Amino acid sequence: MKIVFATNNKNKLTEIRKILEPQLEIVSLSDIGCEADIPETADTLEGNALLKARYIADQYHLACFADDTGLEVEALNGAPGVHSARFDDTTDHDSEANMRKLLHELNGKDNRRARFRTVIAFIPASHDTDSDSSPLLFEGMINGLIAREKHGIGGFGYDPIFIPNGYDKTFAELGTDIKNRISHRALAVRKLADHLLHHFH
Questions:
Q1: What span, in angstroms and rounded, lies between the C-alpha atoms of 199 and 201?
Q2: Which residue ranges traverse the bilayer (predicted)?
Q3: 2-199: what CATH class?
């Protein structure tokens, strides 16, 4: 079964393919020739995931899913949250600038508690007559701490400064095998996979 993952983020694509293939074939936006910059204007992770999934379902009539992920830091009242990719608003998706800003805002704060949250919205293909084409939401979450400085070169986004509970290394140091077992995205994807493999096999 072929499913569109509404992203062109190669890191996310690789991560998700490792978890879902070979049972399911995952194709990206560029694979289906979608050049659109799908707006992420909602004020929640759920809202953004739904916007992206609905766009693909409406335009291409293919089964698809989209995710939105936020890093929610307790001492910053849940920020950056839905704005995680553009936390440093002078840049766009610049991970280094985002991490610099976050570490700066936490400077001198002892409460380093944070959580990563991923929400996946899945919409079945509209021509699947035996399936309801209303969207389904799957959530994954992992608690941890924000490090005082960056560690490790693996991963992407905030991985070099996020230490998951139960570990003493950041996601960037732990490597993809461990991250793909425990991460917020992995947990949400596993729920999606359980649903898909149960319904389509």
A1: 6
A2: none
A3: alpha beta
